[in-house]
Amino acid sequence: MRISILQTDIVWENKQENLRRLREKLETLRGTTEIVVLPETFSTGFCMDTAGLAEPTTGETITTLRQWSEEYRLALAGSYIASETALESGEPAYYNRAFFLTPEGDAYYCDKRHLFRMGHETEHFTSGNQRTLIQYRGWNILLLVCYDLRFPVWSRNRDNEYDLLIYVANWPVPRRKVWDILLQARALENLSYVCGVNRIGRDGRNTPHDGGSAVYSPKGEVLAAIPDNEEGAATAALSLSSLQEFRLKFPVWKDADDFVISSDNNSR
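-> structure tokens emitted (268 positions)
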């Protein structure tokens, strides 16, 4: 499996320009990869104007991405600001929604579980409560969003249920060391490939980001990376057979503690 990480700056709250730039980059990746991973909220930046920017999954952003996934024959992963009507109140609800769109027309979605309260995300978004396992070309994939990286229980790889763990992020410079350490840790503790994609540049609140996008092997080795503060793409070749062989030779997963994750942030 070939996976490409796409590290970009994001034009604040400008969907059309971010989509235009993305298409230019996809043109260069045509025929070279099977998955392209974008940063968190790739089309708007990590902004809180949910009412002005949110779209349903039938909106322009996802509709356009699904068309491009089919046209370029590659899967697209990232997140965007999504809206739905809340069943209980009938009022709009907003989500930081991760997506995985395949060229065969399949679409998977999961909402960011851990909202970043220090950035006021809890005041504007609704937390997700489901992990979505994605099946793509023989691989099992788990897709999570930014702050989810800090909470290893939510990414727990129970009985090797996934082979590839993807994080999409707007992770700022002051906490960059945490990003680097925890991405590698998630690969080691879960015996899984791990892909992390972060943005660069300053956002609309003048928060700086320097990237650090990388792909790690189950042994914590860097398989692909993009230099800090540079837009660009990097591609890694992942081997499912090598992963399975390593898990057989070093079956630490058999000794993992057994517990159940509940949707209300409690476990037992």
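The two ends are 36 Å apart (CA to CA).
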